[in-house]
Amino acid sequence: MARSKYNRVLLKLNGEGLAGELGRGIDVPTVESIAEQIKRVHELEVQVAVVIGAGNIWRGRDGLERGMERATADYMGMVATVINALAMQDALERSGVPTRVQTAIEMRAVAEPYIRRRATRHLEKGRVVIFGAGTGNPYFTTDTAAALRAMEIDADVMLKATKVDGVYDQDPVTYPDARRFDHLTYIEALNLGVKVLDSTALSLCMDNDLPIVVFRLAEANSVERVVCGEPIGTIISR
């Protein structure tokens, strides 16, 4: 059996990753596939926490372009992340992985309120914990929520799953000659203005010395490979 490099990880998933070929909404087979990846990591006795975005359901900028108040658009996005969290919880539990959803905005009928010590206890008991509703505050992205939760639960690393296989000096879709980095310091990543992670999340990780691994989710067993230390993405650290 493979051996994990980390004891406790925070996995950040983009909401779009749950949509599969549909492009929007939730594609159940895709969610089940991601749940299977998380299960493989869980079977390595790694403690796994998850934060999921909401881009597959709601994009705040669409509302802003129509004159919507920013706070309202952000709260709508936070609620949408809980829908994704519940979908992932269902897929994980159907595969035999005990899971809890905690939300920063109270929804006691469907999830626990976020309590740091309770979340840590769930992890210690071998449960996957999914954090929904971002930080509970507008003007903060789910990337920032992931960085914050990772530090609150004392995670060893933040794993950022994306559509690309790491950080590039420019958009690899538009520029075929774009250069991929194996490692960047926090300052280098901030100076590059990397698009895969917002600057607030990067600064938070830098201030608290939390390493980040950016990798492509669609690669076979990518989450397990990253957890086991395979160099398949970009590491951002000191």
Explain this structure.
- It is globular and about 50 Å long.
- It is 37% helix and 19% strand.
- By secondary structure, it is α/β, with parallel strands linked by helices.
- The strands form 2 sheets. A 9-stranded mixed sheet has the order 4-3-5-2-1-6-10-11-9, with helices on both faces. A two-stranded antiparallel ribbon has the order 7-8.
- Helix 1 links the parallel strand 1 and strand 2.
- The chain starts with 7 loop residues before the first strand and ends with a strand.
- It has 8 helices and 11 strands.
Give the number of helices: 8
Backbone structural class = alpha/beta
* Total number of beta strands: 11
Helix and strand run: EHEHHEEHEHEEEEHHEHE
Cα distance spanning the termini: 30 Å
Spatial order of the strands in the main sheet?
4-3-5-2-1-6-10-11-9
Helix content: 25-40%
Rough shape?
globular
Unreliable stretches: none
Q: How many domains, in number, for the residues?
A: 1
CATH homologous superfamily title: Acetylglutamate kinase-like
The radius of gyration is 17 Å
Beta-strand residue percentage: 15-25%
CATH architectural group: 3-Layer(aba) Sandwich
Keywords:
238 residues, alpha/beta, Carbamate kinase, 9-stranded mixed beta sheet, two-stranded antiparallel sheet, globular
List the helices and strands and how they pair.
Blueprint: E1 8-13, H1 28-42, E2 47-52, H2 60-65, H3 70-94, E3 99-103, E4 112-113, H4 116-124, E5 128-132, H5 142-152, E6 157-162, E7 167-168, E8 180-181, E9 183-185, H6 186-192, H7 199-207, E10 212-216, H8 222-227, E11 234-237
Parallel strand pairs: 1-2, 1-6, 2-5, 3-4, 3-5, 6-10, 9-11
Antiparallel strand pairs: 7-8, 10-11
Helix pairs in contact: 1-3, 5-7, 6-7
